TrEMBL record:
Protein name as catalogued: Membrane protein
Domain EamA: 3-132
Transmembrane segments: 28-47, 59-80, 92-109, 116-133, 145-163, 175-193, 205-226, 238-260, 266-286
Organism per entry: Stenotrophomonas daejeonensis
GO cellular component, one term: membrane
UniProt xrefs under InterPro entries: EamA_dom, EmrE-like
Leader sequence segment: none
Annotated keywords: Membrane, Transmembrane, Transmembrane helix
Amino acid sequence: MHFLVSSVVCSVLVSVLLKLAPRRGIDIAQAVTWNYLAASVLSLLLLKPSLQSLRGGHAPWPALLGLAVALPGIFLVLARAVREAGIVRSDVAQRLSLLLSLGAAFVLFGEHANGWKLAGLGLGLLAIVGVSARSGEATVAAPGGWRWLLAVWVGFALIDVLLKQVALSGTPATAALLASFAIAFVLMLGWQLQRHFGGRSRLGARNLGFGLLLGALNFGNILFYVRAHQALPHSPATIFAGMNIGVVCLGALVGIFAFGETTSRWNRIGLGLAVIAIALIARGAAG
């Protein structure tokens, strides 16, 4: 269980760093770039993936390239959502992306839809409405913040669909992650060099250090989540529910008590519905 707790903490700390970045004068695009350098190196050293599967003709390169673009893209979107709408609602939107992932699993991958999953899907849609509602206070969300929450919701679901395509190809997850991280780093580095030499944003050591810390936490979230599944191989639904509910609840506590984010009654109702929806979907996944 300590692996699961560590994964939850790392996930919420990523949101905390994204919240702090503007206050520290961090160029978030540079930080995201160095984040993928850290994630690539840590994946290579700690996961030690076999890259043989990537050399064959069946390697899912379209999906891997899609991930290499979508992963840094969603990081930038999440950073904007945290700044505009706060940690509380951004973390809920991120975790409720599983609703779109579930819908895609029904339509694209032939997954069985049972009553628990459908009930969770229905409650989750209501939760999205509640979480996205504005309270009218500037500390909750800037005007238009709901658009970034929607982008987080759709973006993380897209990543989940791409990961499912990779899994169906038979490519080991560790090799796929390393390839996606490395390509994402190369693409982002090219962009940062263009910005640097174009005089738009000079590369700085401060952004490098912040990005490496961000990458360590991002990788820690993934590593501990994998370790939790390995420690409890017969309880995938428990790990799934614990991870998502844990992030929603801890993110809410940190956002409210550490950053003074305010929530409306509708936001709190949406938060509660989100927890129930995740639990129902996990119950359905358990069969």
